[in-house]
Write a structure and sequence with these properties.
Layout: E1 8-12, H1 17-29, E2 35-39, H2 43-51, E3 62-66, E4 70-73, H3 74-83, H4 100-118
Parallel strand pairs: 1-2
Antiparallel strand pairs: 1-3, 3-4
């Protein structure tokens, strides 16, 4: 599958309740229709991470791919996504000035505990009919 050139791809942990809620949060605030989504567990998610040499045993929560330009992981991915959200959420990108290592300590703490705090699904939830066009792997 060719990636849409004018869209950014968000790879997320499809069985993580927090991650699924985050995807819905992004979709609701993506006024410019910039983002497309795929789970890390999908064939496409595995292909995209493999092509970029990303070890999903170490980075298993969120990855942002800007096709033909760059990819971002962990806190940088979350903050890069916030740049394109409507409302005050775009102001969160100001935290990019904080060193990545420090941001990722906090990010990794939340990522390590996300299943315990928010739960885990046995399968990746299916998107609603309205959401299906935003997912690349359904």
């Amino acid at each position: 599958m060719d990636l849409p050139e004018d869209k950014k791809v968000v790879l997320f942990d499809g069985v993580c309740n927090f991650c699924n809620a985050s995807v819905r949060f992004i979709m609701k605030r993506d006024k410019k229709d910039i983002f497309r989504f795929a789970s890390l567990q999908s064939d496409l998610g595995q292909k995209l991470t493999s092509e970029r040499g990303i070890d999903t045993s170490k980075i298993d929560s969120i990855i942002l791919i800007d096709p033909g330009n760059a990819y971002y992981i962990k806190s940088t991915a979350a903050l890069e996504i916030s740049k394109d959200l409507r409302g005050l959420y775009s102001a969160l990108s100001l935290f990019l000035f904080i060193p990545e290592g420090f941001r990722n300590v906090i990010y990794d703490y939340v990522a390590r505990n996300r299943y315990q705090w928010f739960g885990k699904s046995k399968t990746c939830p299916m998107p609603s009919e309205d959401e299906q066009s935003r997912f690349l792997d359904t």
